[in-house]
Amino acid sequence: MRSIDSALMEARDRLANLGLFGAAAIGWILVTGAALRNHLVRDERSKSTMRENNRNGYGAFVLYSLLAITAFWFPTAIAIVTTVSWIFWLTLGIRMKRA
Known about the structure:
Number of domains: 1
Number of strands: 0
Radius of gyration: 17 Å
Largest sheet: none
């Protein structure tokens, strides 16, 4: 069966997807950074949680940057890794306790 999308469009779609994940990570870094700088957390436990979330944002940005570069050579593997990482972030968010 012939694919409707061209190889160029598929690469563009993969990069757009990873770019959106990277943008979400940058947003998370900015939000948590603002909360920490402006003392918007209630107590030390909340501050600790916010710092951890900030580190997670930096980790996500690095991860998705590396995945975007690697996607040119290994598109299927990167699609799988991106899906697994999304499940990881979802699970992490569900398991977080309210600070």
